[in-house]
Amino acid sequence: MKLVYFALIGTLGLGLLSPLQVISAEKTILSATSDKATPSSNEGTVVSSMNAAAYTYMELESKGRRFWIAAPTTKVNVGDHISFVQSMVMRNFNSKTLNRTFESVIFVTSIKIGK
After folding, report:
1. What is the pLDDT of residues 34-71, one digit of tens each?
2. Over the stretch 66-111, which tens digit does the pLDDT of each residue have?
3. Percent helix, strand and coil across the chain, each rounded to 5?
4. CA–CA separation, 94 and 32 (whole Å)
5. Per-residue b/e over 9-30, b at no fewer than 16 CB within 10 Å?
6. Largest CA distance in the chain
7. Domains delineated in the chain
């Protein structure tokens, strides 16, 4: 969100936007850039997982949608309920370790595992 704020400042000039205007613009930009691979909530159930280097890649399902997240190496099981704080979405991300390109993967700093 800070990136959006700085982009708006750079485009429109410092001091022209109030914080509320920035938040409104962020919501508009985020809704315009969302797609089926981006979850509507920051949680889901593990469908599959794989470890590579320092990350665990997890395919999650939430509300009938599937998406990938990557977190620091963590032991998870199929069926675990995961919640996370979204950090950065990478589109067309190529993992050289897995020899695979993900259409979209959300890199997160930590996850919370529930059953």
Report:
1. 445 556 679 999 999 999 989 999 999 999 999 999 99
2. 999 999 999 999 999 999 987 899 999 999 999 999 999 999 999 9
3. 25, 50, 30
4. 24
5. eeeeeeeebeeeebeebbeeee
6. 49
7. 2-33 (no CATH), 43-114 (2.40.50.140)
The answer to whether 77 and 66 have CB atoms below 8 angstroms apart is: no
Helix pair 2-12, 19-33: axis angle to 10 deg: 110
Give the tokens for residue 109. Answer: 């700093």
User: Phi-psi bin for 92: left (phi > 0), alpha (psi -120 to 50), beta?
Assistant: left
Q: Match 């695979």 to its residue by tokens.
A: 100
Q: Give the count of beta carbons closer than 10 Å to the beta carbon of residue 90.
A: 14
Give the whole-angstrom CA distance, residue 73 versus residue 109: 10
CA distance 89 to 21: 24
